[in-house]
Q: What sequence folds into this?
């Protein structure tokens, strides 16, 4: 390799190293040693949501921004939304069934609570959770071979509505090519799977608790940093 080429490569490497060092210093990865301007500490960011393990089968979901927590089966998959959280429930694939969806949602709305208009209501009632009483409704319907079952709980506090929804969808036996005794087996398993998920959902709602998020900085005591 020619000497001029070696020199060029060295210059490029030095330039790259300088850019990386400058980027780290600018982002705060490598703090500056200049003490003339003083140092300003940046408080650690507070997590809005947090999931912790309670036991081998149970986890806790906390949302500090929306002010609530619930315990749920660890097998469920939690996914944050803009207005709450969605839990996707696993479906036992080893059983003969046509269950296509099991899902639980918690939605916090700045509005009065109201259930959607439905044509088929299985039952209505109330559920006492601590010092709160939740209204509940169960609905079922079948459209184009798909069966839908929903259970909803609502809790109104001030101008805020806490809405809990369990949703399940089952497809027709024909969609999975089931015939004969397998159809009866699938129908029985469908009922058992949905009932179990519905019970787990209600048990989750029973653990609902209001929580207080961390307080912010008192603006009357905050002073801008002089530069």
A:
């Amino acid at each position: 390799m020619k000497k001029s080429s070696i020199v060029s490569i060295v210059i490029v490497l030095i330039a790259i190293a300088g850019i990386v060092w400058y980027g780290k210093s600018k982002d705060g990865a490598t703090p500056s040693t200049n003490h003339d301007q003083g140092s300003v500490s940046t408080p650690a960011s507070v997590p809005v949501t947090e999931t912790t393990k309670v036991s081998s089968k149970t986890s806790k979901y906390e949302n500090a921004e929306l002010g609530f927590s619930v315990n749920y089966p660890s097998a469920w998959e939690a996914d944050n939304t803009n207005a709450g959280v969605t839990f996707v429930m696993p479906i036992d694939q080893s059983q003969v069934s046509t269950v296509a969806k099991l899902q639980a949602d918690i939605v916090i709305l700045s509005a009065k609570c109201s259930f959607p208009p439905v044509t088929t209501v299985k039952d209505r009632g109330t559920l006492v959770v601590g010092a709160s009483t939740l209204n509940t409704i169960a609905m079922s319907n079948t459209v184009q071979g798909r069966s839908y079952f929903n259970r909803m709980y609502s809790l109104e506090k001030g101008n805020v509505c806490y809405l809990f929804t369990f949703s399940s969808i089952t497809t027709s036996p024909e969609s999975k090519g089931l015939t004969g005794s397998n159809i009866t087996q699938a129908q029985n398993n469908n009922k058992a799977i949905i009932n179990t998920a519905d019970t787990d959902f209600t048990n989750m709602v029973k653990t609902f608790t209001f929580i207080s998020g961390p307080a912010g900085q008192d603006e009357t005591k905050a002073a801008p940093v002089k530069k």
Summary: DSSP finds two helices and eleven strands in the chain. The domain at 51-210 is CATH 3.40.1000.10 (Protein Transport Mog1p; Chain A). The helical segments are 3-27, 181-206.
